[in-house]
Amino acid sequence: MSLLDGILEAFRLIITLDPYLLRIVLLSLQVSGAAIIISTLLGVPLGTWLGMCEERKTRLINKIIYTLMGLPPVVAGLAIYLLLSRQGLLGVLGLLYTPVAMVTAQVALALPIVTGLTMVGIRSRGRELEETARTLGAGPLLTAWTVIRECRYSILGAVVTGFGRVVAEVGAVMIVGGNIEGRTRVMTTAMVLETGKGHFELAIGLGLILLAIYFVINSLLYTFQKESPEGGESHARR
Amino acid sequence: MPGAKVVLRVENLVKRYDREVLNIERLVLHRGKIYGIIGPSGAGKSTLLRIINQLVKADRGEIYYFGRSNSHNAKDSLDLRRQMTLVFQKTILFRTTVFENIAYGLKVRGFKKQEIKKRVDTLLEQVGLKELAGRHAATLSGGEAQRVALARAVAFEPALLLLDEPTANLDPANVELMERLILDLKRNTSITVIMVTHNVFQARRVTDEVIFLYDGRIVEMGETKQIFTAPHDPRTGAFIEGRMIY
Known about the structure:
The complex is a heterodimer.
Chain A: H1 3-15, H2 19-52, H3 59-69, H4 73-84, H5 99-135, H6 140-150, H7 152-168, H8 171-177, H9 187-197, H10 200-227
Helix pairs in contact in A: 1-10, 2-5, 2-7, 3-5, 4-5, 4-8, 5-6, 5-7, 5-8, 7-10, 9-10
Chain B: E1 6-16, E2 20-30, E3 34-38, H1 45-52, E4 60-65, E5 68-69, H2 74-81, E6 84-87, H3 98-108, H4 113-126, H5 142-154, E7 160-164, H6 172-188, E8 192-196, H7 200-206, E9 209-214, E10 217-223, H8 224-229, H9 234-240
Parallel strand pairs in B: 3-8, 3-9, 6-7, 7-8
Antiparallel strand pairs in B: 1-2, 1-4, 4-5, 9-10
Helix pairs in contact in B: 3-4, 3-5
């Protein structure tokens, strides 16, 4: 099969909503979606808190988060594998080779990114916003909410970056998911498998869908930022 | 000043960073006056304002607000903070409309919608921005933004207004407008204003009393006219006349 045939066949699979391809795409979105929701719920408050703390007090935590932001997926996968395997601390739960294990591995990858980028975004403007809210009489919770709301573009950027990282990774989900058809096979693991088998049409089709997902998400973020009068940039006067 | 109500009393206040930056033995401020804090850079002017506004904790000393000690109880502390506010030199407006910016402090205090609208509309008229109520704050000029910041600060009628060089980055027309707004506030309310300024001419134009801060200590405090015409301390005179090298 030529490359052109592969691309044409890939489009046919996408247009006809091939059930096998559709199942893989849906599971990918479910796993990565769940991982990014969990990472957002944990990472945004944590990143906000760290961003509002004095930097000298959180130096060690910052270094750990920055290190984990570059965590290789296979290392994250291995760590979760060891945790969930029979001899592991959580082996009794029997979660290995399930979507739950895959979500856990992806949270390990996305959480430092969401936390770290939120922290950086908040730090650039959070202190002055915090002080402004406080001088206007806001209590601690309202102050934190004001800071999060004001830094929403940075936070959205952090979440999108985190999603991009997990939906595209292959190492972690391969190790803890096992690439089992119908159960734990996602876009990236399927691409590896189908390429190995020489079934380029499915691999190309999945690659195109992955690119399309990226494009849609980044376009939404871009539009959202552009619609704000300050173009998503910080609005500190002078 | 016998008879006038004491708004703020500071006693033995000390703040250190890598060195001692503030050491105020005693400072008493009365209701309805505009106080100017002048002094060279690094004298501790902004630090004093930030401590008064409870943004920064002092290492030692007591501050009595409206006769009450600075409480360590969170709720009491919040109640106290809600009777004052600070306008920074660098204007920070929220990413929303001019109206919503001014309404922020009123919403925090649980004002009803109708009352919020009435107050914001009145203030917008006073600061000359009535037409800009629906504009996004990010599109304002520097002078407009600082006027919004001032309106936002006085919307909930604080007893104590702290201004940290509020006109430092404005053009002369906006400086004049801001000064007029501050003087109008004094005329129409019983608000007490503490204004940090580098501009001695502004201190002379706007304030009732001047506090000259040098190296973290109050060198001299007195009526503006007296400070400018017959300062007791030679350092005050040198600063006012622009002879102080710092």
